[in-house]
Structures are given as C-alpha cells and as structure tokens.
From TrEMBL:
Primary localisation category: membrane
Domain VTT as annotated: residue spans: 32-170
Compartment(s) where it occurs, according to its Swiss-Prot or TrEMBL record: Cell membrane
Coiled-coil regions, chain positions: none
Protein name: VTT domain-containing protein
InterPro entries in UniProt: DedA-like (IPR032818), VTT_dom (IPR032816)
Domain of life: Bacteria
Amino acid sequence: MFESVGSLAAGPWIYAVVSLSVLLDVFLPVLPSGVLVITAGTAAAAGSGAASAATGRVPHGVPSLLALVLLAAAASVLGDLVAYRLAWRGGERLDRAIARSRRLTTAQERLGGALARGGGALVVLARFAPAGRSVVSFWAGAAHRRARDFLPWSALAGLSWAAYSVALGYFGARWLGATWLATGVSLAALFGAGAAAGFLMRRQPAS
C-alpha cells in the first residue's frame, strides 16, 4: 500500500489536477479538492519515504510539498478572484445560480449574516467551512467590496487552507503509514476543521 500510494505522485500531472480542482471548486463545491490535496500530500510522503529507504534520496517524480502548497493557494486565490468579478457584475443571474445549488443556498443562509457583520478574519475561517469559500467570494463581489480589502484575506485564507491540507496528508502518512487509515484520519481532521470554522462563524456577535 505504501508503494502504491507513492506511485500516485509519479509525473507532473498531479500539480495540474490539484490546481484545476481547487480553481473550480469555488463554482462547484462538490469537487473533492480537499481530498485531492490531502492525497497529494500523502503521495509525497509515501514516495519520498519509500525512495529514501531504498536509495537514500528523493526521486524527481515525487511532488514537492512547497510546490503543492503554493499551487493550491494560487489556484484558490485565482478562483476567488474570478468568482468575485462575476458576482460584481452578476445581479439576478448570480442569485439564480446560487438558488440552483442546495449546498450554496444552505451555506449562504448560515454564513452570509456572519460575513456581513464580520471582518477579514472571517474570510480565512470561511475557507475551511463547507462551501464557505464560494459564499465569501460571491458575497464580496455582489456587495462591491473593494478588491484590495478582499484579495489579501483571500490569499491568506488560500495559503492557510493549502498548507493545512498538505500537512494533513504528509504527516498522516508519516505517522500512520500510507494506508487508508491515514487518509481517513486526515480527511476527518479536514472536515472537523470545516465544522469548527462554520460553528465559530455563526457564533460571531453582531457589530
């Protein structure tokens, strides 16, 4: 199992898959971008561990943890920016698009009020909440918030989420081995952070 998970890292395609998934899940929150980022981190740990044990060095095909974090964060910010600009011009079409997604509608109902009364730190929290990233990006654009007020927090949110997700996959594999148990524990930690973020946002006092 250790070697089979490590083989997922072979080739540069893993970067493209992770980046595209993170970029698009602002529009399609059902995409498993978090699962892919964790899997990439697990594959990096598995590939580097197996290779180091056999040859004493990490092969070229194993993904770089730093590259995974930076690419996932950059894709997150780019997706946020596209959603923000579309919402800025959207109007009724945006409302209809959100209404067609049960997940986005639920997230908007739960998080919209907190975002309206909160500050930039809530943008970071929302990145971990289910569909929170989508609600934040669309809401900031629809409310015509200035890009210079939104994008720095979006960048911090994307970097925090990417680093956390990659670390979960990497250290989960290091501590528990590249097994389904390690992947399950890492995913549980990611979903737990999302649940905690949503809870904290809803508890924000009105200002």
